[in-house]
Amino acid sequence: MKIIRNIVPGIKLRRALSELKPCKKKIYEAREKGNKEEERTYIVQCATQWCKRVIQDFDIQIDLKGKENIPDTGPVVFAGNHQGFGDIVLCLYAFDKFQTGFLAKDNLARLPFYGKWIKDIRSVFIEREDARASLKAINEGIELIEEGYSLVVFPEGTRSKNEIMAEFKRGSLRLATKPGVPIIPFTINNSYKIFEERGIVTKGVKVGFIIHPMILTEGLSREEIKALDQKVEDIIRGGLK
Prior knowledge:
By secondary structure, this protein is α/β, with parallel strands linked by helices. The protein has one domain (about 60-240): 3-Layer(aba) Sandwich (Glycerol-3-phosphate (1)-acyltransferase). Helix content is about 40%, strand content about 15%. It has helices at about 1-5, 5-15, 20-35, 35-55, 85-95, 115-120, 130-145, 175, 220-240, and strands at about 60-65, 75-80, 100-105, 125, 150-155, 185-190, 205-210. The protein has a seven-stranded mixed sheet, sandwiched between helices. Helix 3 (about 20-35) runs antiparallel to helix 4 (about 35-55). The longest helix has 22 residues, at about 35-55. The two termini are about 30 Å apart.
């Protein structure tokens, strides 16, 4: 029954890919030329058009707070809790000032229709069960950040599928501390109700999205870096209902 009830939402998500076509060719052309700034501009255009289409199709009601905490230029690392698949849409909607890719689980690369697109917006796929592969992915992410691209990371490592936030896995914030870029914590409330709560895509869900003040990482001492994971986790957890 759940499969049947997800057919129409699945068709809508497939159709939403049409929003990516106008900019996708331009992304590839800019990448071929090595023009990273132009590429980032086209990624923002594509992602913004797509996420607004999905939000409209599923009538997602977003209470967005703290957008003034996003700087005018990147790169930055966004770090937040992860309740459901809808978080990708919400992040692209909230962080539309500049390009944002994701540090994503490797199984998303095999997602029908969307797997390649997630890679195209400069995301990095991570195999968390393999320590060596995870380290390689983190280093790949650091290289992207040093080239001017921004990343979203979910330090829990997986979807909570409810309102309870798991403890953070250590190490992912190295994405920010190694190149010395700011971390912007964010908290998502109720996004699991879009799909995970019932196992079907649900329209009209009200979600909360809080963007917290950024944390500078350049020049931090070794002890400050060591305490950073807990500091960011506490800030994000504090935004939960």
